[in-house]
Amino acid sequence: METMNWKVDGMTCANCALTIHKYLEKEGMKNVKANPASGEVLFDLVENTDTAKLERGLESLGYQVAERNGVSAKPVEKKKMNRFLRYVLLCAPFTLVLMLHMFEKWIHIHWLMNPWVQLGLCIPVYVIGMSFFGRSAWKSIRNGMPNMNVLVAVGATAAFVYSLYGTLTGQAEQYLFYETAATIITLVFLGNYLEDASVEQTQRALNSLAKSQKIMANMIAFDDHHHEQIFPVENTVLHVGDLILIKSGEQIPADCKILWGEATVNEAIITGESLPLTKKQKDQLIGGSILIDGTVKAQVTATAKDSVLSNIVNLVKQAQGEKPPVQQLADKISAIFVPIVLGIALVTLAANWIIIKEFTPALMRSIAVLVIACPCAMGLATPAAIAVGLGRAAKNGVLFRNAKSLELFKNITQVVFDKTGTLTTGNFVLADWKVVNGEWSETNAESAIGNRQSANEYATAGNIVMKVEPGTHHSLITTHEFQRIVYSLEKYSNHPIAACIASSWKTNKDERWASIEEIKGFGMKAVTKEGVEWIAGSYKAAATETSDETHNVYVLRNGKLVGWVDVKDEVRAEAKTIVQYLKSKNIKTILLSGDRKTKSEAIAKQLGIDEVIAEQTPEQKLEVIERLNKITPTAMVGDGINDAPALAKATIGISLSEASQVAMQTADVVLMNHGLKNLPLSLGLGKHTFITIKQNLFWAFFYNIIAIPVAAFGLLTPTFGALVMGLSDVVLAINSVRLFVKRVV
Hints:
Blueprint: E1 2-9, H1 14-26, E2 30-35, E3 40-45, H2 51-60, E4 64-68, E5 71-72, H3 83-99, H4 115-142, H5 148-168, H6 172-175, H7 178-202, H8 204-211, E6 216-222, E7 228-234, E8 243-246, E9 256-260, E10 263-266, H9 268-271, E11 277-279, E12 284-285, E13 290-294, E14 296-300, H10 308-321, H11 328-356, H12 359-372, H13 375-395, E15 398-400, H14 404-408, E16 414-417, H15 419-423, E17 429-435, H16 442-450, H17 479-490, H18 496-504, E18 515-519, E19 523-527, E20 533-537, H19 539-542, E21 553-557, E22 560-568, H20 575-584, E23 588-592, H21 597-607, E24 611-613, H22 618-631, E25 634-638, H23 644-649, E26 652-656, H24 661-666, E27 669-671, H25 679-712, H26 718-737
Parallel strand pairs: 16-23, 16-25, 23-24, 25-26, 26-27
Antiparallel strand pairs: 1-3, 1-4, 2-3, 4-5, 6-7, 6-8, 8-14, 9-12, 9-14, 10-11, 10-13, 15-27, 17-22, 18-19, 19-20, 20-21, 21-22
Helix pairs in contact: 3-4, 3-7, 4-5, 4-7, 5-7, 5-12, 7-26, 8-13, 10-13, 11-12, 11-13, 12-25, 12-26, 13-25, 13-26, 17-18, 25-26
């Protein structure tokens, strides 16, 4: 299935998002996510679906597709004024004049008291209001999903029709409420504009990342005489393999690899790390980062839509479209909110008419109930907070793959770490190695060769280190042969230790295996064309051959130990600080590793980790995480293929950006800063985003629970109710925006 990402105009509230969501699901689309905060709609397109029909369907609901997968659906136009601000500017002059008669004690304008003058002033405002609120209300009712515009349209229309009745029947003195209708429409437009502006602020971090995707590039091409030609192109037209020139001060247009030159690069846009990095030949550059100093020629390794930056933006958009469990109650209430408020307004009208025996004040109280109720607050409570939380995280190099993780962080009481590549750098160097000689030493082997022993007992190439079994042919192992065999095995593994060995002993005379496989948690196993079995693996592979378990890699030939290899790995500089931070928050730390217990315990002691579980296969790691999850919510931090099952099973799986693709795909959170330093930020943002969601939902429920009865008892006017309703969403947005600057660690 193809995943579609549409930007939809007109989706201004939770009811709108719910309407679009239900329509697309009814049409058979899968995994629909509609985000009213950003206007993004994501869904999986079912085969043979007519997208034009879907767009027409959305238009019939009152919405318009503005972008399809990042491509504008309509001609690019100069940025227009916000439509709600435009409506406010059109309506405000008429409304302000209408409201002057409310101040007749200080300003007496005799002609303004004429009902026909007031009708003339009100009509333009009412027509503009109904062209938006009325049309939207009718479409939402027609599709069985009444939105908040129904309340505004009914309230304004009630005031207008009531006033018009008085004007036509000559009873204007008792029925003159044109200013109420105009004020409701104008103030709700103002509230919508303030809401738009506030919600846009919640998206600013993500917008700044998105803007960095489309830039100009200096493309290198060659003419008929093989002379280099440089010309500017948009980075969106670059293809994998294209050559580009990047100069000082320029933004890197695409993910690429340096072919020539050196440069200093700022990757803060991706990693959140402001310190510049030195990049040289064969190093990777991330599209969107800034080349501070130097000039390089590079080859594009990913198109704009497949770049690291683009993937981050797309994943954050998907996460923003999701709703954590805490929002479910608000969604259920929002779906029935408008009908309930309409019912309360009718009850208010009837009850007040019966009690105070006057229709006019009863109607005003009923209208106040309609205009002060705000379903948008409940709908925006979660998206606004999530937009800010995920945006700040992405800006600082923390990528949440789903919104659910934000809520789950509040329950985490223990964090499990993998060792290699997670607590350590994973950048290994060879420390020591040895070819095991058995009963023969190199000295007596060389002596035997000097005495011209038979060739079927000894081989003579290089340094002889192993006795030849009778009946074999040239099977003595030399140091060079040992290195060649180990390289031929380890080059097929993605494990950091294997990569280090393969890089150090690389040769073009590698062994051509008849079969080779990688056994997770054990090592590499291969068979030659002659049927000789070789293993390069952990101590488990050599446990029957030696009691020395202090080495990293053991090499066996037909089950017999041939030699071992040791590598050195540095502990990450920030690892101890991170462990201390977690302990200060009463979070238990556990080291879960496939490495030997002695080495794991040494690392744990150095860092202050509470518990060690070592020598675990991927299957055992999965079982451990499952067991720990049953005790208490558990986060796991890992980076290798062998960590992927455990990362998927953990309450929250956290991966590093340099991890294997499998680990990154199964993790809920990816730390993009080449290390653990942003782990506290991810924990803190998760908890504080959830706190902000709870605060927003409390405000949304509290506001409606208090405001509606206050309006029903006549303690505020419809005009004041419209103003308060318009500002209620702004309160949520302001509270959410605080996450940008709030201390979370």
